[in-house]
Design brief:
This protein is mainly alpha-helical. Among the domains are: 82-102 and 109-224, Cytochrome Bc1 Complex, Chain D, domain 2; 251-368, Cytochrome Bc1 Complex, Chain D, domain 2. It has helices spanning 12-58, 82-87, 124-138, 140-143, 159-162, 170-173, 190-200, 212-224, 251-261, 263-266, 299-309, 320-330, 345-352; strands at 179-181, 186-188, 273-275, 278-281, 363-364, 367-368. It has a two-stranded antiparallel sheet. Strands 3-4 form a two-stranded antiparallel sheet. A two-stranded antiparallel ribbon has the order 5-6. A hairpin with a 2-residue loop joins strand 5 (363-364) and strand 6. The longest helix has 47 residues, at 12-58. The chain is elongated and about 130 Å long.
Length: 374
């Protein structure tokens, strides 16, 4: 007779042991799968990196993109006074070719700098001083009358309220100081640079250090320069430097250019135009113009300014030769004496004007320049 084993009933301990065993097998399986996936992912990533590296080696380095120079708006040559500009905004000047700007040492220098908009001056005490500086800059002969000896305003040579590139903008100057200057043979602060402007360009006297006029102008320049790199000369930060002309600059040719392109605003006699007490277009020579110590009396600086900015709203339309010629014509006229005058024209030229670009002490049309005006 066959023996039949009775049905076996698992105890709770046996069931728990079986469940633990199955759970362990499942965990081992999951770990193995995850490990396989990770190994595959790492292998794939290494292959991609290797491929990208080989591709990068094969490609030539891309040249850095150049930011186009923004066109600058310009009021006038030295420009019309801002009373006229208040009535109508000046026409924008043509964009400056990249070749006319000085080469910058770093790639960041190729980008055009955009100063803050006029309506962005902040509120509060600081904003009040900035606005005061702006008004002095625009209306120097009336807002800083005690220190001005002619009818010029800062904006006549630094266009668009000191914003326009290639007209010695404030944002191009403020960040360059303190700096050694061959003109003073010393390291000057920005405030000292401003004092020189009053002495020479404004044919007046330097405000005392700390005067509210200097503080306001410096605050305006500081605000205008916010975001500009300190110590780095940006494109358009000064007057352009023109190449040596094909022909030596000539008075007669310059007179023709002046009559055709400049006399409409500045008058046949170069004395500009006035409307009541407001100097709308500035005088270019004579007793109401910049004196023999101003940088603009140097033909190369005047030529660069003229070529980039004149005639009004038509910058870069004169040829370089025309700019050299008309700058020579303008600066061949008499103007106020250099404040550093020693009492002798030849000695003053030797000490302060020993340059091929200065006509001080030179004889033009039978007259020795440097006599000064009364």
């Amino acid at each position: 007779m066959d023996y039949q084993r009775p049905n076996h009933v698992e105890t709770p301990e046996e069931q728990a042991r079986v469940q633990r065993s199955e759970w362990q097998y499942l965990k081992i399986f999951v770990v193995v799968v995850v490990a396989i996936v990770l190994v595959a992912a790492i292998s794939f990533g290494m292959q991609v990196n290797k491929s990208m590296g080989e591709l990068a080696k094969e490609r030539p380095a891309a040249a850095p993109a150049q930011t186009a120079q923004k066109p600058a708006t310009a009021p006038a040559s030295p420009t019309p006074a801002t009373a006229a500009a208040d009535a109508a905004k000046p026409a924008p000047a043509a964009a400056t070719p990249a070749t006319s700007a000085a080469k910058a040492p770093a790639a960041a220098s190729t980008a055009a700098f955009a100063p803050p908009a006029a309506d962005a001056i902040p509120d509060g005490p600081m904003g009040d001083v900035i606005r005061r500086g702006e008004q002095i800059f625009l209306h120097t002969s009336t807002q800083a009358k005690a220190f001005v000896g002619n009818t010029l305003n800062c904006v006549n040579c630094h266009l668009d309220a000191g914003r326009a590139a290639h007209s010695a903008p404030l944002w191009g100057a403020y960040t360059q100081y303190p700096a050694y200057r061959s003109k003073t043979k010393s390291v000057d602060t920005f405030s000292e640079r401003l004092r020189g402007c009053f002495m020479y360009s404004m044919n007046g006297k330097a405000p005392p250090p700390g005067d509210e006029v200097l503080v306001a102008l410096e605050a305006y320049a500081y605000w205008m320069s916010k975001g500009a790199p300190v110590g780095e000369k940006l494109p358009g930060a000064s007057y352009p430097k023109l190449a040596k002309p094909a022909q030596a600059p000539d008075y007669a040719r310059g007179q023709k250019v002046f009559n055709a392109q400049c006399a409409l605003c500045h008058g046949d006699d170069g004395q500009g135009q006035r409307s009541g007490d407001v100097q709308v277009f500035p005088p270019l020579w004579g007793k109401q113009s910049y004196n023999w110590g101003a940088g603009m009396h140097e033909v190369d600086k005047a030529a660069g300014f003229i070529q980039a900015n004149m005639p009004l709203g038509k910058g870069h339309t004169l040829s370089d030769q025309d700019a050299w010629d008309v700058a020579t014509y303008i600066n061949s006229h008499e103007r106020p004496q250099d404040p550093r005058f020693t009492g002798n024209i030849a000695d003053t030229r030797k000490r302060f004007h020993d340059s091929a670009f200065s006509l001080y002490g030179q004889t033009v049309n039978g007259q020795q320049l440097g006599q000064g005006t009364q």
